[in-house]
Amino acid sequence: xxxxxxxxxxxxxxxEADSVQLPGKDGSFQILDNHAAIISTLVEGVVKIExxxxxxxxxxxxxxxxxxxxxxxxxxxxxxxxxxxIQNNKVILLAD
Length: 96
Description:
Blueprint: E1 2-6, E2 11-16, E3 19-24, E4 27-32, E5 38-42, E6 45-50, E7 65-67, E8 74-79, E9 82-87, E10 90-95
Parallel strand pairs: 1-10
Antiparallel strand pairs: 1-2, 3-4, 3-6, 5-9, 6-8, 7-8, 9-10
């Protein structure tokens, strides 16, 4: 699925993801391919992104996104809140 992460300052990620785990208002939830269309608010927490194995060398990562020390396919991003929209295998995350 296609993932875009946008902050008030700039776009910090645009690429493929196998899964995205988000801190939702009612608890953490995960998005996989072919997820039903939703819009959800997010709270402060960590966004966990699993990228395809073929995209391990992402040189253009924003300084806000960090690689997981135990798994090079996993990226982490701390957010203060935001909104996510999922539709047709495209995830748009507007994060603070």
